[in-house]
Amino acid sequence: MGDTAATAMQELSALIAAIDADADHERWNFSTDLDRAGYREFAMHALHHGLQFWLEADPQRPRWYRWFSPTKKLLGDNPDSIYFGTAIDPTRRYRIRGNLAGACYTSFTVELGTAGGGMSRQLGATLNDDEFDVDPDGSYELIASPDEPASGPRNWLRLDEGAGSVTTRHYFEWRHSANLDPNLVVPLSITPLDDPGPPPVPDDAAVAANIRRVVTFLRSVTVDWGHDPMPPGAIPWVSAEPNVFTNPPPDDGNLGIGYAAADNVYRSARWQLAPDEALEIRGRFPRCRFANIVLFNNHMQTPNYDRRQVSLNRVQTEHGPDGSFRMVLAHEDPGVPNWLDTRGLPHGTMFWRFLLPEEALTPLETRVVKVADL
Fold first, then answer.
1. pTM above the 0.90 mark?
2. What are 166-213's pLDDT values in tens digits?
3. Residue 252 above 70 pLDDT?
4. Which residues pair with 188 in a beta bridge?
């Protein structure tokens, strides 16, 4: 009797125990039991994704899996976006069919380094809906392959050497969260152009390989994460100072950041607020395809957004007569427009997305104030 799968199960069990112990590692700078509990909860979300996405991933017979939901969050989810992903073999050819379904932006990004469950190292080819043909009813068809198809480059998603997966993005700038809409369906399919036939019945070695992909992914976002942190300022749009945003030039590319979006301009900073403090953010949205701010916990997860306002897009934001806005981060409702709810967390991350901006971004100005002074 084979025992390879049993060994893989033991490896998964050992990893979960290692994650539990890792909650006390100094690199996390956790200061409270709430911080450590958040890490353990994040690990369960990552395990959920690993089991859903990687356990039976088959690049010969790919299928789309939804990255995020209101109960599965990791790696910077977005209440206003639907994401799908699939494992692929960069030497093979696939046909992708879909429909925009009313999204204000749709794109496909090839991820490098993800074969076998690894963390994305950088972006490969990207194709957005300005770069492929869309029928009047919103439907489209793409070819994903290593070599340009006979039909030409217009609807071609190049599969780069070293690619292991493809991620899709479907942005909706609505008054309500797209991720909370049970009736929203984004049609999407992927079919191999060279039929591999039916999959074989998984034997002991195949089941072991399936489990080890889950282990690889889960390890990459937990116990292996953060041991070699980037120095402050290494990513221009990530502020090293709490409660203050950097405003770098617009050419700070995202291609070297795993799971980033090539078409987004980002801004990110930590908030750090006492119980009686609030943070004002003043600015102006640029002309662009989509924009929003999202609050994250320590692990790039949005807090529950079904009952709390933890993000604001342009449609949801109240603007002044001159088009500017004032947003307020506070632990409790301050009674002013554009409140972003920290849930009482003394620290976390504020994350902006500006998609395909058509003009320079206005600097984001911030000020820590007493809630009583609002």
1. yes
2. 999 999 999 999 999 999 999 999 999 999 999 999 999 999 999 999
3. no
4. 98
Angle at 121 between CA 91 and CA 90, to 5 degrees: 5
Residue 31 has pLDDT above 90, yes or no: no
Q: Alpha-carbon distance 160 to 125, whole Å?
A: 7
**CATH fold label, 264-373:** Jelly Rolls (2.60.120)
CA 61, CA 89: separation in Å to the nearest integer? Answer: 10
Residues near 212 by Cβ (< 8 Å), separated by ≥ 6? Answer: 8, 11, 116, 117
Q: Quick: pLDDT tens for 66-111.
A: 999 999 999 999 999 999 999 999 999 999 999 999 999 999 999 9
Query: Three-state SS string across the chain, please?
Result: CCCHHHHHHHHHHHHHHHHHHHCCCHHHCCCCHHHHHHHHHHHHHHHHHHHHHHCCCCCCCCCCEECCECCECCCCCCCCEEEEEEECCCCCCEEEEEECCCCCEEEEEEEECCHHHCCCCEEEEEEECCCCCCCCCCEEEEEEECCCCCCCCCCEEECCCCEEEEEEEEECCCCCCHHHCCCCCCCEEEEECCCCCCCCCCCHHHHHHHHHHHHHHHHHCCCCCCCCCCCCCCCCCECCCCCCCCCCCCCCCCCCCCCCCCCEEEEEEEEECCCCEEEEEEEECCCCCEEEEEEECCCCCCCCCCCCCCEEECCCCCCCCCCEEEEEEECCCCCCCCEEECCCCCEEEEEEEEECCCCCCCCCEEEEEEHHHC
Angle at the Cα of 54 from the Cα atoms of 51 and 60, rounded to 5 degrees: 140
Architecture of the domain spanning 4-220: Sandwich (2.60)
Q: Regarding beta strands 324-330 and 339-341, do their DSSP bridges make them parallel or antiparallel, or are they unpaired?
A: parallel
Give the residue extent of every domain in the chain. 4-220, 264-373
